[in-house]
Write a structure and sequence with these properties.
By secondary structure, this protein is α+β, with helices and mostly antiparallel strands. The chain is 42% helix and 21% strand.
Length: 213
């Protein structure tokens, strides 16, 4: 801590991070141990966060992230989209295919930003807001593959005809972005994905990740 920071705010944010990292919630005692503060401090932090609906406590007394974080989360997608657009635009123009940024939303993949190439005679129409299961399409499969791979080894995923007949997809996961799980990719009308496309989407995913850090 420095003279310019707030210890109470820091502790409150740490509480939210701890709760976000668990599916079953945490007790006051558990939070007290993890934060290294006494239970009275934790009670005060939770009471304040509850007033803003950022934390809720179940009947057993375990604290969990509250629905109030959803109101904050609604503003995340526009910020992520804005940061990703330069890399997506470059990718779309370079490859001549529709580029997209896809994020995890529950058990689905959600396209939050899409850029279509300006110079092609035809390309796949794709829209922001499009959803599909994580286990179908290159965007979702790249995310799932990243969960199984070692850090620093993103690789890329190729698919054909899984979301649209005759369309190929290539996608690479975002790596090293805290709190964001997603992928960058392209979709094109082709029998096979050209060899250079895989490496190019990995490069674009790296650029987007750097913009989000």
């Amino acid at each position: 801590m420095t003279a310019e920071t707030s210890q109470t705010l820091d502790r409150g944010l740490r509480v939210l991070k701890l709760l976000a990292d668990t599916d079953h919630g945490l007790t006051v005692t558990e939070l007290s141990h993890k934060l290294g503060v006494n239970r009275t401090v934790v009670y005060r932090l939770l009471a304040t966060l509850e007033q803003h609906a950022l934390v809720r406590r179940d009947l057993g007394g375990r604290a969990r992230v509250g629905l109030g974080v959803l109101r904050l989360g609604r503003q995340v997608h526009p910020l992520v989209r804005e940061a990703a657009m330069p890399a997506l635009r470059s990718l779309a123009e370079d490859i001549g295919a529709t580029a997209h940024l896809t994020l995890v939303d529950g058990a689905e993949a959600l396209a939050v930003a899409v850029v279509e190439p300006s110079w092609t005679d035809y390309h796949v129409a794709y829209r922001a807001g499009f959803r599909h299961p994580l286990d179908r399409g290159a965007a979702g499969k790249a995310i799932l593959a990243a969960r199984q791979k070692a850090p620093g080894d993103p690789g890329y995923t190729l698919t054909h005809g899984e979301l649209e007949t005759g369309a190929c997809g290539a996608a690479a996961p975002l790596v090293g972005v805290t709190g964001v799980e997603g992928s960058v990719g392209v979709v094109m009308l082709a029998e096979v994905v050209p060899e250079r496309v895989g490496k190019r989407v990995v490069e674009a995913a790296r650029e987007v990740a750097e913009a989000l850090r």
